[in-house]
Every structure is written in structure tokens, then in C-alpha cells.
From TrEMBL:
Record domain Acyl-CoA dehydrogenase/oxidase N-terminal: where: 7-115
Cofactors demanded by this protein: FAD
Key words, A-Z: FAD, Flavoprotein, Oxidoreductase
Source organism phylogeny: Bacteria, Bacillati, Actinomycetota, Thermoleophilia, Solirubrobacterales
Protein name in the entry: Acyl-CoA dehydrogenase
Keyword Flavoprotein among UniProt keywords: yes
Organism the protein comes from: Solirubrobacter pauli
InterPro entries linked: Acyl-CoA_DH_CS, Acyl-CoA_Oxase/DH_mid-dom, Acyl-CoA_Oxase/DH_mid-dom_sf, AcylCo_DH-like_C, AcylCo_DH/oxidase_C, AcylCoA_DH/ox_N, AcylCoA_DH/ox_N_sf, AcylCoA_DH/oxidase_NM_dom_sf
Record's keyword annotation contains Oxidoreductase: yes
Annotated ranges, domain Acyl-CoA oxidase/dehydrogenase middle: 122-215
Amino acid sequence: MVDFTLTDEQIALREMAHDFAEKEIRPVAWEFDKDGTWPAAILEKAWELGLMNSHIPEEYGGPGVSYLEGCLIEEELSWGCSGIATSIGANGLATAPLALAGSEELKAQYLGMLTEAPKFAAFCLTEPDAGSDVSGMRTTATRKGDKWVINGSKCFITNGGYADFFTVYAKTDKEKGHRGISAFIVPKDDTVTVDKKEDKLGQRASNTATITFNDTEIPLGNLIGEENKGFKIAMMTLDRTRPGVAAMATGIARAAFEFATSYSKERVQFGVPIAMHQGIQFMIADMATKVHLSRLAAWQSAVLLDQGKRNTIESSHAKRYAADSAMEVTTDAVQVYGGYGFIKDYPVEKLMRDAKIMQLYEGTSQIQRLVIARETLLPRRIEEPTAV
Ligand code: CAA
């Protein structure tokens, strides 16, 4: 049966997330965008309500929502402000590898840490010379007695400046390319430095930093899963988080669509509201279609995960389509506002700036197309979604 009807609990969850976005995020979103400040009080409230760490299973103190429910939360929070939503959601990305492949001890310690107090984790994959090409990373992890020693720099790290621990990918065998990468949990200590906070075009309320590990020592048990299986863990993580990114893009697009629709009914030109002009109506119609299809694609790619199925191509379809649509819808929203859309007194230019990152982070739109092309032309047989 194909049925996207939400249960009463799911509707209530979505309403709770919407209410939070409307009351706690929206009223201050443009201020946080202007100043680029860390929204500490909002994050703490989101943590208290269980909107942060929503994927963490109940046995580790989280609400353990499904991937579909995660999408409901992400869309609403991003409708409020996708920068603040990124800060709220980043623990989910950082802990997905742990949930997928970590030992019981690691899960109990680090998932438990996040649910016991409003703390942060950061996902450290990207490096200055290894963005889309993950296997080109240079960070190393070397075994020394009963420790791993981590050295290297990671950039564009969401929540990096506030993280209590990091999920770090590092080369454990430099000769083996993607088969020589492992994943680790690295707690913050004095050897971990926050080198740079980025001054960004959009999503300015989220913290993005460069993090350097300088002979950082961690216990051998902080290896996530098996040695040299880190690349696969990273790919499987992104399969699990891209539906949520697609939902975030849907939230941004929906916000822009709503602003543009109501403005088009108020703004009078040639003696009638501009919504009466077919040129505007067609733009509004295309925006509505893009929001609708983005949501469906996000939900479908999430439901596959909830059914225990592999969703690599579907999560790339969803992430690519929703991100590109968010860019188009927000650009059109600025167009509907005309010259006013270009100035900061009106809400839509922020949304256009925020939308841009959706085409970049968690795999660019070009990388999603690469995945889609490979999955279409050379479908891989990765049968078990949980096999790492
Ligand atoms: N699930 C399981 N295994 C997978 C997989 C998947 N979805 N995709 C690939 N693999 C496996 C392959 O089967 C292959 O396995 P073998 O070793 O057995 O052969 C292995 O991984 C290598 O696969 P590829 O040959 O496809 O690897 P590649 O080097 O060509 O890279 C890529 C593929 C799709 C380009 C990948 O590197 C990629 O996704 N790049 C984008 C990275 C990305 O999204 N970065 C974003 C960083 S996170 C972020 O932005 C967060 C933030 O804080 C803002």
C-alpha cells in the first residue's frame, strides 16, 4: 500500500515542531542572520522539547523518532530558519555513524552524553583538499600503544566551535584509498583547536568552523565499527541524512512560497494585485509544485529507511531535487517582490541566501547527480542497509 497519510502522533509532532518554529525561531531569525550569533537559548529549548537528537533511540535517552518523522521536524524548523535548524540537527549527522556501526560502550557513552545535557557533536569529514572527493583526505589516525593518535584539519564543520565531541574520518592506511579510511569518536580536549569561524553568505546562525587535531590521543575503543570501513560508514550515513536535508530545503522553499503568495495578493500594479497577472500566477504555481514534489521525494526516501531498505538513489533524488528547487523557489520569491525582494527590509533575500547551501552541503547537487548516474548505469548490489 502506498500511503503518506500521517498518524495522529505524527501530526501532533509536526504541529509541535511548527509551533516551536513559529514562536521561538521565526521572530528572531532575521536578527540571528544579521549578526551571525550562536542561538544558544533556542538550541537549549529545542533540546528540552526533544527536537534535538530526535533520532537517538529511547534506550540512550532520545525520542527515537522514525526517519519520516525526522523529515517532519526538519521541514518545520527550516521553515522557521534553516540556519538555526542546521544547528539543531547537526547532532543527528554526527551521531548517525555511531548509531550505524559503533560499539555498545561508545553508543551508551556518547549518545547518552547528548541526551543527558544540551551538548553538541560535529561530523568531521571534509578537508581543505578533500570535499566531494572524500578519499583524498589527509587526516591520519596512527596506532600508538593503547591509543589512536589523530592529526589533521577538517573544514566547514557544522557546530565545530561548540562541539563536545567529533566524529572524525581519518586515514588508517594511506596506501589503500577509500579502503584505508576509519571513523572515530574524538572528545574535545586541549589538543583540538577551533581555527576559524566562517563568515557565510547564508545560514548565518549556524556555526561553521575549521577544526584541527594536533597529536590528539583517543582510546583504541573509540574506533567506530571496523578499521578501514570508514568510507562506507560515511556513505551510509549520508544516505540516512540526505532525506532530512531534502526536508530542510522543502521548509525553506515553503517559507519563500508563502511569503511570495501573500505579497502577490497585497501588491497592486496596473490597478490589480499582482496575483491577478498570469506571469505571477505561473511562478506561484511552479513554486507550489516544487514544494509539493520536494516533500514527497524527501518522505519517500525516508520511508525506505524506516522499512529497512537501501535508499541511496532515492536520497540523492530527493536531496538534489529539493535543494535545486529551494534555490529556484527562493529566487522566484525575490522576483515576485521585485526590487523590494532585493533589500533586507523584506524577508525573502535571506531565504535565497540560505537556500544556496542546500545545493552544497552533504554532497553538492553535482555529486547527487553522480550518485544517481552511477546507481542508474551501474547499480551496485549493497543488499543490507545495515551491513558495514
Ligand atoms: N552505501 C554503502 N556503500 C557505498 C555507498 C553507499 N551509499 N556508496 C559507495 N559505497 C561503497 C562502494 O560500494 C565502494 O565499495 P568497495 O570498497 O567495496 O568497492 C566504496 O564505497 C567506494 O565507492 P565509490 O567508488 O563510489 O567512491 P568514490 O570515491 O567514487 O566516491 C562519491 C563516491 C559519491 C563521490 C562520494 O565520495 C561522495 O558522496 N562525496 C560527497 C561527500 C559529501 O557528501 N560530503 C559532505 C560532507 S558532510 C557535510 O557537508 C556536513 C556539514 O557539516 C555541513
